[in-house]
């Protein structure tokens, strides 16, 4: 079985800051990491490999600048077998639509080298935060997609998936090949091992441009991005909350008094 995990390099912060003048993401001074949900997705793939080391291989794939090789080496050090970087100036300025077109083209190319049975993505990236890329890749490739995967097991040529809901979960049976998006409840990602780090530097990272993945530049990057961002901003901070003290009855009376004072009731 071959599993491919889509991994994204993101700024190491859950609190994305926006330049108030330019309206762009402030990346300066913020180290980059493997997107947390993608670490869960990779762990899920590696656990399948642990069960069948001879019969299972795990590939990681990212679209990003050349610096993304550091994150790919981290994935190799965790235990991935192959790493693919889609990097080309024409991929720049991509919205989620163009991003998923490029990643899908990369996966088609990986498929030529060995058919992928399960594609994993994270539920969402902590910087862009749209949760669109995984399902869009599935749509481009014409494979079934299950989002919010919190548990799963492979049975023959099917995957039985627990899909997280707000107040429970649903069980879905899906045929392979399929695309699953991982949530953090799926597992606890492993650390890189010393041996893994050494091995990671012996393994090759395959770098593909738009020609290699058979994409027309008109279908890549900014040119193929219908999204227009009119404004980005950080919402102003809310005022400090006020804690009420006393018994339930006293706090209730104080709260009613405050609401009356402000003409809310
Ligand atoms: C008009 C416009 C221009 C933009 N220009 C740029 C730009 O020049 N440079 C830039 O970095 N960003 C740019 N972005 C942001 C870029 O579109 C998003 O970062 C990207 O599409 C992923 O979306 P997301 O972060 O919401 O991912 P989500 O949809 O939240 O990610 C879900 C999952 O998809 C997978 N995934 C997402 N992105 C990648 C990736 N690159 N490689 C592999 N797997 C991935 C991961 O598994 C991830 O967990 C631009 C956005 C817009 C709207």
Automatic annotation (TrEMBL):
<dbReference type="InterPro" id="IPR012255">
    <property type="entry name" value="ETF_b"/>
</dbReference>
<dbReference type="InterPro" id="IPR033948">
    <property type="entry name" value="ETF_beta_N"/>
</dbReference>
<dbReference type="InterPro" id="IPR014729">
    <property type="entry name" value="Rossmann-like_a/b/a_fold"/>
</dbReference>
<feature type="domain" description="Electron transfer flavoprotein alpha/beta-subunit N-terminal">
    <location>
        <begin position="22"/>
        <end position="217"/>
    </location>
</feature>
<dbReference type="InterPro" id="IPR000049">
    <property type="entry name" value="ET-Flavoprotein_bsu_CS"/>
</dbReference>
<dbReference type="InterPro" id="IPR014730">
    <property type="entry name" value="ETF_a/b_N"/>
</dbReference>
<protein>
    <recommendedName>
        <fullName>Electron transfer flavoprotein small subunit</fullName>
    </recommendedName>
</protein>
<dbReference type="Pfam" id="PF01012">
    <property type="entry name" value="ETF"/>
</dbReference>
<comment type="similarity">
    <text>Belongs to the ETF beta-subunit/FixA family.</text>
</comment>
């Amino acid at each position: 079985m071959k599993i491919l995990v889509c991994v994204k390099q993101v700024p190491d912060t859950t609190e994305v800051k926006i330049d108030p003048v330019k309206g762009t993401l402030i990346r300066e001074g913020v180290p980059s990491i493997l997107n947390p949900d993608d670490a869960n997705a990779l762990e899920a793939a590696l656990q399948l490999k642990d069960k069948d080391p001879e019969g299972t291989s795990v590939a990681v794939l990212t679209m990003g600048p050349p610096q993304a090789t550091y994150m790919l080496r981290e994935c190799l050090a965790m235990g991935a077998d192959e790493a693919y970087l889609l990097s080309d100036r024409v991929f720049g300025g991509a919205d989620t639509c163009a991003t998923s077109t490029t990643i899908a083209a990369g996966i088609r190319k990986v498929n030529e080298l060995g058919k992928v049975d399960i594609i994993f993505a994270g539920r969402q990236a902590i910087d862009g935060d749209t949760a669109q890329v995984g399902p869009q890749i599935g749509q481009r490739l014409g494979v079934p997609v299950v989002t919010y995967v919190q548990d799963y097991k492979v049975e023959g040529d099917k995957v039985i998936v627990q899909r997280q809901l707000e107040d429970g979960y649903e069980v879905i049976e899906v045929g392979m090949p399929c695309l699953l998006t991982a949530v953090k409840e799926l597992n606890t990602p492993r650390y890189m091992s010393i041996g893994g780090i050494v091995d990671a530097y012996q393994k090759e990272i395959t770098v593909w441009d738009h020609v290699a993945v058979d994409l027309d530049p008109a279908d890549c990057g900014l040119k193929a991005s219908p999204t227009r961002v009119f404004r980005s901003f950080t919402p102003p901070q809310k005022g400090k909350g006020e804690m009420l003290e006393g018994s339930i009855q006293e706090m209730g009376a104080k709260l009613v008094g405050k609401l009356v004072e402000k003409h809310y009731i």
